[in-house]
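ugh ok so i messed up the first submission bc i forgot one of the chains. this is the corrected input, ALL of the components this time, i swear. 562 residues overall. if the numbers dont match what u have on ur side tell me asap before i send this to the collaborators (the ones from the other lab, u know who)
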Amino acid sequence: MSADLLRTVGEVRAAVAGARRAGRNIGCVPTMGALHEGHGALIDRAVEAGDFTVVTVFVNPIQFDRREDYEAYAISLPADVEFCGRRGAAVVFAPSVAEMYPEGFATTVEVPSLAQNLCGAFRPGHFRGVATVVAKLLNIVQPDTAYFGEKDGQQLAIIRQMAADLNLPLHIVAVPTVREADGLALSSRNRRLSEAERRIAPLLHLALEAGRRKIAEGSRDPAEVRRAAFAVLEAEPAFRVEYVEVVDAQRMQAVDAIAGDVRIAAAVWLGSTRLIDNVPA
Amino acid sequence: MSADLLRTVGEVRAAVAGARRAGRNIGCVPTMGALHEGHGALIDRAVEAGDFTVVTVFVNPIQFDRREDYEAYAISLPADVEFCGRRGAAVVFAPSVAEMYPEGFATTVEVPSLAQNLCGAFRPGHFRGVATVVAKLLNIVQPDTAYFGEKDGQQLAIIRQMAADLNLPLHIVAVPTVREADGLALSSRNRRLSEAERRIAPLLHLALEAGRRKIAEGSRDPAEVRRAAFAVLEAEPAFRVEYVEVVDAQRMQAVDAIAGDVRIAAAVWLGSTRLIDNVPA
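and heres the new structure output, hopefully the right one now
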């Protein structure tokens, strides 16, 4: 199978309208390209649901707080289109920056109260850029279902809130994080790691697992859980820790005491690469 | 004819889905109720286009910068429903505040660069509230066409920009301002005027007409046009002028020189009532 590569809003709307007339439900998997098995799991979920699956590939300039990060975000569109076709997606929508942000573009969408903490505290404007582009993409594709990865947990919380608040007529499906055999969460950024860094990187997941173990052992104190995770990270001098937090699973806000569904989330730098991860606990 | 009064998102979506299955196009007329002939012109335009016409009646708390203004915005829903039915609208969607802003609501939509001047300079947060509620209403109704009055010129510019930027799949139709015989623009706020204020109020339109005459006479200098309008307003001590500006018709931003489509816009207080108006020039 091969996926159709479409570059304009008009083309993707026409393709979606055709699928709707044929009685198909529409699924949307928003990505920034550089597709890996984590994205593959999202696409599989849509295809298995029987959706006419539209994968969007757009490196969104307004969500990068650091220009060098944007510029390093090299995608290979032919490989991504091939990947999507192989997984059974029908369409790859890869618009230009001018198609998404024409001259005079001026609108922002944001969920300020969910964007102050975790990554939001370290990446000013990032989640405003995310919410804005995702609102656009969902309005362009108009899917019945949109699929997002749990790995970007705060992003997922913000998009869920935005979609509910703005009455977007769709369901959001969260797909569990895909990991390497050693536990490292799949991410396009992993390919920037040196060999030495790649050997260290799985400690991020191990640190979160140490926190989870504390909770499994009965701890209800977020500070104690954070200390357990920090201890793993601090043993490796190559890590620079941005945060380790215990948060509620729905809104990804820090909790005072552990009760109900929580997750442990962390962000670290390893050399010039920023890694994030989170686990349920 | 009578219009159906619906109170929930689910009900209005079901009504719209039924109309779509019957092959109808959907028209949406967002209002804050207290309907008058200005709203009537919007509804007429939708009905004449053959739309299945949904009038939304919702006094949006988040767009009021002054609590007493919100509380004074009394609507009479039975009269509004009767009005809509008589004009040929199919549905009145009048949600509760809790239906629109459930516990935990947290998202904002805004067009900051178009909301700094004119009314935006005097009503902090107003246009953020407008853009947010209109995005919601348009996502709930999902019309093919939405109708807005030119009287709220800055609102129209912001909604146009928001709808284009967020790729809302609809057309926006601007409907010319409806006026009393003496030129006063119809507004729900006019009913708050005392008899004496009501006699003075048409001077606002006369002032804008004086500005328009300057341009018709060949002036290309916004300062000169503003002076001509100000002269009319200043002759009446009961007015407190917020602004008189010459703006481009599309974005409603002040122009340095008059060229292309411009409008003259003004806001004044008359006692405790704020009046706005604008005219093409």
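quick check: Residues 4-175 of chain B form a domain with the Rossmann fold fold (CATH 3.40.50.620). that seems consistent at least. Chain B has two domains: 4-175, 188-280.
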